[in-house]
Amino acid sequence: MKYFAGIDIGSTAIKITIIDENKEMVGHRISGSGSMFYKYAQQTLGDLLKDLNISDEDVCYRVATGYGRKLFKEADENISEITANAIGAVAAAKEFGAIKTIINIGGQDSKAISLDDQGNVVNFAMNDRCAAGTGKFLDACAMNLEIGVEELGERHFNATGTPLSINSTCAVFAESEIIGLLGNSHSVEDIVSGVHYSIAKRIVKLVKRVGVKEGIYFDGGPALNGGLVNAIENEIGQKIFIPKHPQVTTSFGAAILGVDSYNYQNSGL
Amino acid sequence: MTSIQEHKQKHKIETPNEKQNRHKAMEAIKVLNTLKEGFKEPPKAMSYFYDLFEEVYCHQKALHTDKVKVGTMCIQIPSEIIYALDGVPIRLCNGFYTDDEIGSDLLPQKACPLVKASVGHLSSKNLTDKPDMIYSPTTCDQKTKAGTLISSFGYDVVDVDFPRTKESEISREFFRRSIRDFSVDLSHKMGRKLTKKNLRASISKIGYAQSLYHRLSEFRKSKIVPILGNDMFIVTNAFFFDKLDNWIEATEKLVQELEQRVKENLHVAGKVSPRIVYTGSPPIFPNYKIPLIIEDSDAIIVADETCSSNRMFNDRVAVDEWFVNDMIDSLADKYLKACTCPVFSKNDDRIRRIIELVRSHNADGVIYQAFAGCTVYELEQRSVLEAMEKEGISILYIESDYSPSQHGQLSTRVEAFVESLKIKNRNRK
Ligand code: SF4
Ligand code: SF4
N or C, fewer C-beta in 10 Å, chain B? Predict the structure, then answer.
């Protein structure tokens, strides 16, 4: 069996996906990227292969993507995270039908990517200027509320009052807003749903820049937060698809590109 | 891979109306929480009003299920006549950004946010106290045009002719006739007649409500100001839609409490907070953007000259003869003569009123807001600024809209103005 690796070196995490020659996912791993991208990426890949019982030689092609992709010298090829995200999303959502728009919320940025009928990227919009609408913002809010990020989803659905919106787009000011609300004994649940709606509104604005179409796919770590998903669905007025492993869509896409590149290079043309 | 199908079955996506309601609730609660928690303790009697707004805008409570609701597009429709015929006036001037955004799809981007919001709200048909009919005075261009647009949504809209000059005998006669026609039309629709008794009763009841407002205003003249300008806007805005008797009762309580507060020297602002007269495009709940910035910048609004507050209560009806026709004419006169809306060609009354408010309330300065897109307030800015300068009254002119953005910039401008007033006061001493 031949294997292919997609290595996504992001600002806050390294995500690696291994697939086989049929483009089926074999395994994936996520680890913090820390200060030494390269070393951690190497290590994570090694650990993952060991777990999967795959020898290094069986990996025929490695494709790197993400901010730190250029640092991963062992890669056979590298590719932008926009393209990789698109390829991965189309493959991951195959059974659900056509994907026209991708929402990606990463650690430090968020993106909206619009695709044509063939799944090619036609346009994208990105917010990387401030924390608002990123994973960082959610982390900071959870921290101020003294709850875990993984609790946010459930808290959202337990809210009974009107969601209390956070106006500041800056994580620092948002913090003082949240502390103010807590000080006046508003419920954590109402604040959580307010935070989700504030992010959702910003995300929807981003999506509007590339055009809202049917067939929306949402990935990145925050896609695991059902409350945020609910808020975005309400703001955008339609259902959105969440893959099983939303954090690794981009590395999955990179690995798929690896299969195609490998086959092309070895097709004897 | 699975989608989150199960999650979706549990949590349906909101309908457009539910979304609109949630957005409005979020806007409303934000302002109410700020008023309740962001300032020195508000009077206890304010809870009635806070709760009212929360019930209506966060929980979509209908107040007038058993009554005929008469929508009005502007202050110019005499509510006395509506009450006399046993209807409930509902002022449809709207302050929600959510509705402004809906209206933006139907009107030019640059249109007045108040008009866009009113149109957006009516176009959504998502109203708790839906008006059974709407009277639309042909005041400013945008309101005039809005009336026609609103009737295309299926509402029964009647134009009420409104003159653009105030002083002339023609316009006086013109508006008297207009209000007579309005009375006839409404009488028909309500299947009731205006009588000496019912009209006189409603005139005196509204007169009483006005007198309560005047008592509240009196408190704001003294050094100890027992109530925030923002809270006053809440009280007067409630008059747009509340049950009249409830409003009167709650306001009576507020008057009593403020009396007590003055005795206890309870001043809601700081020691050196400058006193501001607020004028311009009307603040309508929850668009208290500028008033909140002002009182958040260590100033206090002691009076206002706007159609969402002072202008509704300022002038009383002067009746010579208590016959139905005379009363109708007097009402028409009151609404026209006392109106200081900039839609009129000449509007010296407005300038006079602002100066008078500054003097009587010992104000340190005036803040004039115009909605971006409101041509008449924008146009009148010059003459008001000049007149204030002549009187030696400091004035700040700001343009704003309903969007939550630009907050930082606006605060900086207001703060700088407030500080300049403080420095002036200090130097004077
Ligand atoms: S600004 Fe003038 S025209 Fe507009 S609602 Fe107020 S009084 Fe009526
Ligand atoms: S604010 Fe200006 S444009 Fe808007 S309704 Fe009043 S007068 Fe008309």
Answer: C
What pLDDT sits at residue B218? 96
Q: What's the B69 CA to ligand 1 centre distance in angstroms? A: 20
A233 contacts in chain B (CB < 8 Å):
8, 13
pLDDT at B5: 45
The Cα B393–Cα B137 span in angstroms is: 34
Rounded to two decimals, the ipTM of the complex is 0.83
The Cα-based distances of B215 to A214, B251, B266 in angstroms read 58, 10, 17
Q: Does residue B81 lie in a domain region?
A: yes
CATH architecture of A1-93+245-269: 2-Layer Sandwich (3.30)
Whether the predicted pLDDT of A26 surpasses 60: yes
Task: Report how far ligand 1's centroid is from the alpha carbon of B86 (Å).
Answer: 25
Residue B7 lies in a domain: no
- The pLDDT of residue B1 is 34
Ligand number with the minimum distance to the CA of B114: 2
Q: How far is the CA of B281 from the centre of ligand 2 (A)?
A: 7
Distance CA B359, CA B347 (A): 19
- Does some domain include residue B9? no
Domain count, chain B: 1
- Strand-pair category, A121-127 with A110-115: antiparallel
Same fold, A1-93+245-269 and A98-242: yes
**Could you tell me the two tokens for A182?**
């807590």
Residues B358-389 have pLDDT tens digits of: 999 999 999 999 999 999 999 999 999 999 99
Classify residue B10: in a domain, yes or no: no
- What is the domain extent for residue B269? 16-428
Q: What is the pLDDT of residues B51-88, one digit of tens each?
A: 999 999 999 999 999 999 999 999 999 999 999 999 99
Q: Is A24 on the interface with B (CB under 8 A)?
A: no
Q: At what angle do helices B289-296 and B229-238 cross, to 10 degrees?
A: 150
| Topology (CATH) of A98-242 | Nucleotidyltransferase; domain 5 (3.30.420)
Place of tokens 């929402």: A103
The distance of A265 to chain B (nearest Cα, Å) reads 30
Q: Where are the beta strands (DSSP E) in chain A?
A: 3-9, 13-20, 25-32, 59-65, 77-78, 101-105, 110-115, 121-127, 216-219, 240-241
